[in-house]
Every structure is written in structure tokens, then in C-alpha cells.
Amino acid sequence: MPSSAAAPQQSVTVIGLGPMGQAMAAAYLDRGYDVTLWNRTPSRADALVQRGAILAESVEHALLANELVVLSLTDFDAMYAILGSAKSAIAGRTLVNLSSDTPEKARAGARWVTDLGGTHLTGGVLCPPPLIGTPDTSTFYSGPREAYDTHRAALEVITGKSDYRGEDQGLAALMYQLNMAVFWPAMIAFWQTAAIAGAHGLTAQEIAPYVTENFAGMGHFVDFYASRIDAGNHAGDVDRTAMGLASMEHVVHTASDAGVDTAFPEAVHDIFRRVVDAGHGADSFSRAVELMSRPAA
């Protein structure tokens, strides 16, 4: 007769219940996992406990509850501060650290976990909390391939896709920070636009469709310039830095005339100016990559 034994219950511990950690725990509950929680402010677990999650009485109990432990913390220093009192409970656990930090801190944190007998996977989530648990989102991972393969199904509860970057623990952190280097300035550019528009009586909602269209077109520019940058081709056949400098002067003056803060456009203007001052005014503004590849003088 076929076996009627039920499949073993899947389980996970989530440590850190900010908006992202709460969304991850909720996603696991949605998929039928047994979920154990720990947070420095216990009340943040209340809604999840009402749904069936278990709030551990200590971080040590949270670690011991399950082999798979997801960390959603501010940074790696928070990991040391929180888990430092429960080092003995790390042995035999797989810690998936989805906290933001530098590649070097990710490597150091992984060594710390490994020295304590645990396994560490570095991760970088590429979506906001409301999109956790949806199929078209993605997370970078790096660390031991065996651990990634073992827990891949559980990792893809958090985001529907996962992008394994290799054994180097710092690679997922690097890829995440590269994405943040694009995301945050792009959003600040929107805030700047909204400030200037608001000074002229336009609402953010009125300009939003034009900003979205602008962002949508950026893929063409990225694809066009990427191959030229890799080839070291900064010819001014399509654009010239001197023209970009003039354009940014107009942006700075428009912001100034509107009576709003000009720090952000001035910072961009300064990059164009430095490229021109270096003698590359007739070259493409992609020449800025070379300028930005070394510390500012």
C-alpha cells in the first residue's frame, strides 16, 4: 500500500520584526510554515502570533526552535548585538542574513557565524515589504551552495525568485548595494522634482506619470552605455559633457529660482564640472565613470 505519512512540517525562525521582517513572517504563515519569532520589542509580534506564530521568550530559544533562521535586522552590527548573548545556540543553524551592510562586513559576519558552528547565507532583498511573498520579486544570495540548494524553496517564499551569486559571502551584499546606489539617488531625484513642481503649484501626482515615463526610458540608456563603458569608448558622438553641464546649470537655477534646496542638483552639476575641468568637455558624459572610479581629490 502507498504510504499515507504526511510530509514533515516546514518551519522557520524570523528574528527582527520591522516592516520587512513582519512581511517575511507573514509570507511564511501564508504558506503553512510553523513560524517562530523574536524581536527586541515583543509587541511587534502580536498580529503574527494571532495568526499562529510562536513568540520565543529569548533569542536563544528562537535560534534553537528551527534549523533555518532568517535575520531581518538593520545591519550586521545588530546581528552581533542580538545574537552575541546566544552564541552557543548558533551551532547547527543556517542563518540567512537579509540585513543591509557592506560586502566586507558580510564576509566578516559569515566568518563569525561559521566559527560558532553555524552556516551563513548573505542575502539582499530587491523589493519593499508590501511585495514580499509575490512571484515576480527577487533576492540575491551568496554563500555555501549546498545551504542555498537545501533551503531554496523556503527562500523563495520570501521572494518568488532567487539569484545565487556564488560562494563569496560578500557578493550578494555587493549586488544589493549596487542596486541601492541606483535606487536611492533616483528617488531623491523624484523628491527634488516634486519640490520644484510644488513651488510652481503642481502636485506630485500631476508630475508622477512623466517621472514614471522618464524612468521607463532609462533602460535604453543603460543598455546603450554599458557596452561602451566596458569598451572604454567615451566618444562624444551621441552626447557631450559640456552640454550636460549646461543642462545641469539650468536645473540648478530652476531650483534656486523656485526657492527650493539645490544641494542635490548641485552635486550632480559638480560631477559634470569636474569632467569638463579634466579636459573632457567634448567627450560623452559617460567619461564620469573614470572620474568616479577613484577617490575625489
UniProtKB/TrEMBL annotation:
Which superkingdom is the protein from?
Answer: Bacteria
User: What keywords would UniProt list here?
Assistant: Oxidoreductase
Every copy of the NADPH-dependent reductive aminase-like C-terminal domain together lies at: 168-293
**Which molecular-function annotations from GO does this UniProt entry contain?**
NADP binding; oxidoreductase activity
Q: Name one Pfam family in it.
A: NAD_binding_2
Q: List, for all copies, the residue spans of the domain called 6-phosphogluconate dehydrogenase NADP-binding.
A: 12-161
Which family would the database say this protein is a member of?
Belongs to the HIBADH-related family.
This protein's name: 6-phosphogluconate dehydrogenase
Cite the source lineage: Bacteria, Bacillati, Actinomycetota, Actinomycetes, Kitasatosporales
